[in-house]
Amino acid sequence: MQPRLSYKDVEVNGRKFRVKKFPARVGSFMIVKLTAILAPMLASIKPSLSAKSVEDVNLENLDITGIMGHLSSISEKDFTYIQDQALRVCFELMPAGPARVMNEDGSFGIADIEEDTATIMALTVHALGFNLSSFFQGSGLHGLVAGLISSRQG
């Protein structure tokens, strides 16, 4: 059994970041919240539930319109909550030490990120993947979730 990692370091757009674990209560709520959001989308990939990796997914069987419809139905309030919680566990690795990407008050804690949508979205995906992929371990979705997260690095 591997020891539980409390953080992972990633590089996004040439910048180095550390993604930490959610506090247990935040992680628990995120699982409940994201399961409610993702459950209808999983019906769109049901023919691919046996997939062990992203490469095993038959894209012709995916209902992309259905998936996008479910994603677009997330309220701004829910999306903001999810993204804020994800960004609060992200830190840019700086010479003086790790700097918070997002402060507790919702302001950004590092320079040149407020208008960098690509970096913000990549960090959100990394934080959710790192924190929630263990929830899917033991299911057919674990390899798929892990592959989707790792395919978005960079």
Spell out the blueprint of helices and strands:
Elements: E1 7-12, E2 15-20, H1 24-44, H2 64-72, H3 76-87, E3 90-94, E4 97-100, H4 117-132, H5 141-150
Antiparallel strand pairs: 1-2, 2-3, 3-4
The chain-level structural class is alpha+beta
Q: What is the strand content? A: 5-15%
Instruction: Report the end-to-end length measured between terminal Cα atoms.
Output: 29 Å
Q: Roughly how much helix do the residues carry, as a percent range? A: 40-55%
Mean pLDDT: 77
Low-confidence stretches: 138-154
How many individual helices? 5
Inertia-based shape? globular
Write the element-wise H/E pattern from the N-terminal end onward. EEHHHEEHH
Question: Which key features would you list for this structure?
Answer:
154 residues, alpha+beta, four-stranded antiparallel beta sheet, 4 strands, globular, disordered C terminus
Molecular structure report:
- This protein is of the alpha+beta class.
- The chain is built from 5 helices and 4 strands.
- It has a 4-stranded antiparallel beta sheet with strand order 1-2-3-4, with helices on one face.
- It starts with 6 loop residues before the first strand and ends with a helix.
- The C terminus is likely disordered.
Short description, anyone?
A hairpin with a 2-residue loop joins strand 3 (90-94) and strand 4. 44% of the residues lie in helices and 14% in strands.
